[in-house]
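Incident review: delayed structure delivery

Summary: a single-chain prediction request sat in the queue longer than the usual turnaround. Root cause was a stuck worker, restarted by the on-call engineer. No data loss occurred. The affected request and its eventual output are reproduced below so the record is complete for anyone auditing the incident later.

Affected input:
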Amino acid sequence: MQRYHRLNNLIGWLVFAMATVTYLLTLEPTASFWDCGEFIACSYKLLVPHPPGAPTFLLLGRIFSLFATDPTKVAVLVNTLSALSSSFTVLFLFWTITILAKKLVLGRPGMHDDRGLEPTPPQTLLILGSGVVGALALAFSDSFWFNAVEAEVYALSSLCTAVVVWLMLKWENRAHEADADKWLILIAYVMGLSIGVHLLNLLAIPALGLIYYFRRTDKATWTGAVITLVVCSIIVGLILVGIIPGLPSLAGSFEVFFVNSVGLPFNWGLILFLVLFFGLVVFGFRYSIRSNNRVLNTALLSFVFILIGYSSYLIIPIRSSFHPTINENDPEDVLSFVSYLKREQYGDRPLLYGPQFNAQPIDQKEGAPRYARQGNKYVVVEHKLETIYNDEDKMLLPRLYSNDPNHIQQYKKWVDIQEGTRPTMGQNLSFLFRYQMGHMYWRYFLWNFVGRESDVQQAGVLWPTGAGKNGLPERIADSAARNNFFAIPLIFGLLGLFFHIRRDGRNALIVGLLFLFTGLAIVIYLNQPPIEPRERDYTFAGATYAFAIWIGLGVLGLADLLRPVLKADGLRGGLAVALGLLAPALMAQQGWDDHDRSDRYNSVDSAKNLLNSLAPNAILFTNGDNDTFPLWYAQEVEGVRPDVRVAVLSYLNTDWYIDQMKRDSYLSQPLPIGMEKKDYVQGTNDYLPFVENPSVAEVNLREFMQLIRQNSPLLQVQTQSGHSLLSFPTRKFYLPIDTVAVQKLNIIPKDRRGQLVARMDWDMGRGAIEKKNLVILDMLATNNWQRPIYFSSTVNTQDFMNLQPYFQLEGLAYRILPARDPNYQPQGGDEGYVAKDLMYDNLMHKFAYRNLDRADIFYDENQLRFPANYRDKFARLAQTYADAGDLQRTKEIVDYCLKVMPDKAIPYDYYTPQLVEPLVKVGEKQQADNIMDTMTNRAQQALAYYSTSPTSGLFDLEVQLQLLTLQSVYRAAEKTGDRARATKALQLLQQYYPQ
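Output delivered after worker restart:
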């Protein structure tokens, strides 16, 4: 037995080493897009990220970051946490597969202790070979590899799942021993820790419960198995509802009662709850010992160890109470902490019963109160409003629930529905099976084990028969993410599944439940809307892990199929293992180029470039996620431009965020917000509707803000529910400008001083002012131009409030100045007066474009959006110099743009034709023609493909981008007098636009 045991350990660690080397070689060296920048920053300084937080991940990330020799190494070290988590997941998967494979090879299916059995050398080869194949198949699978090379929670979450499954199988081998329950308690502790990473790990509980039932029951029945599943599902629900938010919610109720009703000081209700709670736990332990109730004692121990692991969440309110620079939702007391855990800021989706998309609200009722401390009591500042619908407008398992017009349009792509009519249950289930399960789960599953068409969002599965590239657009045909595994991993997985069911039904059921609960069950729970901002395959890492078990067992199934042909056990096992290794080898070969992020710096460079666009002590308004999180990373970790205050527009709709903006942050003074807390507390001035007053032609912004602060009756209107709220009486606003004071500030460039205005006039152009807009208006009225105020150029134009005539483009951001651009045209598309000398210095000297010229680096769809933004700014700058007659500098700018972002590395985008006119003016007609021809041909090829594709409706965005490209080429050709190219572009537009 010792020989097999040593080999099992040795091969396992070799597989671990192979996975680790792979992930370290392909690791992103800095913060990637989406949540990674936020997680790295929050790990580095133990800040408070978006709900529901990930404290276990943050604590481990902090430990890894301590080894950084300088701040620029922090990101790669926190990314390494994900890499090592993933390679340890591969290790534990290997050992899990060998445990299951040993039962099958030795012909001892079911639940029992087989540690004393020594396999023969051919059997050992087969067992360990199946473990290697399955573990490496997971290691090189698309979604799992993606999670392994960036600082996100899914790699660590997968590790927790792999550990608890392995621990449960270790317990199963030792269940007869007197101290076997210690393994169950360890599992409970890992479960508790995993809550501080992600809740996905809890979905393994039903599978673990079945292992317990089958091992501890002499005569197990299917009725007993079903009862076990029900009990385990209840346990999952109790943890999700009763422990995670439930215990803090109960503590919050104690706190409010004892403070408000009994008159105790703050936090005494919480203290009394803890005393009572731990008293009950101690009583439970004493009772279990006196009654010699082992099951109750083990359950209580498990409960306590779950709480010990869950206690990592205490870091959230503790750190929040110190008011750190990133402190989302400000969960510093037990009541706000509960709101944080429940993710209340994201709203709810109906799960089992709720309204369909055409449901008409009939009423609203006040839901749970939201408390805030005022004086020595908790005061209700608002009630969460709950919309009431008629019962006939509700349905079971509502999937077609969103009344967002964009979502309704997307629903129609999947289901034949009509607005104004209630969807049938058949249509509802059709959307569930076709979109939520088919497109948003099975498509991802097949990406990992069959092949993937490209990195374009909504890309389909690349089947073995679709390997050809004829007729495909370059964007798809040449994508590094176009991976074809010829369905070999899928075939091995299905072979392993059928072999497992036939030889060991109970263990196959356990793996099947793990696959089901971490896959399709999540689909039901998430109830995804009909369109997402990005692909969500990372959510189903647990199902990928489960299927990899069957890929490994597929080696045993293949060996069994070879038995009639090859009688020699060693030869048969060796051939099966060799053929099985084709699956991970092909996955590694196909996936390496699109998962290799080792030289990508685009995300952080874009953040630094944006920050370096700004004047000292600036205020910058941004969107969320990709616009903001890299900025947070750059400021918090690398210390880039700590004088700049980044203000996230979506967060400015909340009172807690406005409070934070009114505090110091590093070198940034508080934002110039004149409103007091009473003016923006949640539930107050959340939005101001436009209620026209014909006697008010225009309104002075400063006077308007004064009326807001006074809660003036002049602005008050009544709602249908009888509540009063403030409104605005006209869309036309103006702001008087002290031109003498502005001139002394020297903020207007010399060539623009004639554009300085005595007052700024604009039309709000909207039916309501949200709180975020009110904050911006307040700052404009209060700031007196003391601090530079910018909008990121990627902000939605609806948030500009029609202030564009007063924008100045200085890099990647628009500065608001009391100088009106005389050439601004609302329909022109070019926003912001180009401060050409300032912008030239930024784009040509200050900005970094690391590795955007390297064709060997894969830039996926998200990565390509920011270089497009650069090209737009280069083109604007070049055109400005060309219009000014400075052709030498125009040529310098265009040449530099094409040098740092050549087409071979960053394919031309729809902004690129803006370079054509400057190129022609500097005598580079051939290069200009090449750009137009290249882009026209690509657009023609792409539009021809999408117009005939059966899934063309899913690629509306791609079609729109190609049409924009043709429009851009047409305008460029028209401006340069190239009638032939203009005509061709126009003809293609006319051919495809109606479609």
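Verification: The first helix runs from residue 2 to 25.
Action items: add queue-age alerting; document worker restart procedure.
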